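Q: My labmate handed me this sequence with no annotations at all. I'd like to see what the chain might look like in three dimensions before we decide whether it's worth expressing. Could you predict it?
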Amino acid sequence: MKSPEVPFVVTRPAPDHRALMARLGDAGIDAIHSPAFEIEQVPEPLLRERIDGLKAYDLVIVTSPVAARLIARGASASDIRELGFFAPGRGTASVLEAVGLRCRFPESGGTSEDILAMPDFAGIEGVGIAIVGAPGGRGLLASELSRRGARVEALHIYRRKPVAPAPALITALRRSSGAVVLISSRQAFDMIGEALAEDLRPAWLGSRFVVSSERLERACREAGVSRIRRASGAADELMLTAALEAGWMRG
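A: Here is what I predict for the chain of 251 residues:
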């Protein structure tokens, strides 16, 4: 596969960026890893307490691969195997299933709306639901499940610590406004844009964005992005397929 003149920008935090970077490299495509944040888990005693505390809930929604890995690490020391776990997609679910936890996920898509459309979340008045992740994400889940009558609590087991844009991203934006940005988080989009120098923001907004949801597409357009391709989910394969269909990833 011939490398395009402009690079792809992978915004997933480590270590979740590795597979996507490897696939782009195997395809002969220049790729820049420029995450908006790094992951910082809560202190170990608090993590154990919150994982053990999941037993107090009827259903548990695990919002990210990071949260799934932290739960999986502590699952053997906690009696949580009988709980019903839910995840946005197969990747997050597989982390939990690997340690013997039962996890369901939407048949298609990976957005909060897709989770809310699952039959398991109909008729949930009085049901205790834990939403496990980090501050600043999946607000729609909590508000809508509460509206449906569930007892909802957000349990934060890590936080997103902002990091500076990668020097390679800054160089690419100074040279061109045609980079292909793969992004699946509104928070990441906002954080990277805010961290860039003001003179680089037009090039950032002028980049080509592959996004994972309608809601993220809308946010990008409202911010001033005009070249957007929406993938059918956040999985690596779906994001790359969208880039290929847009003509931004050529064979």
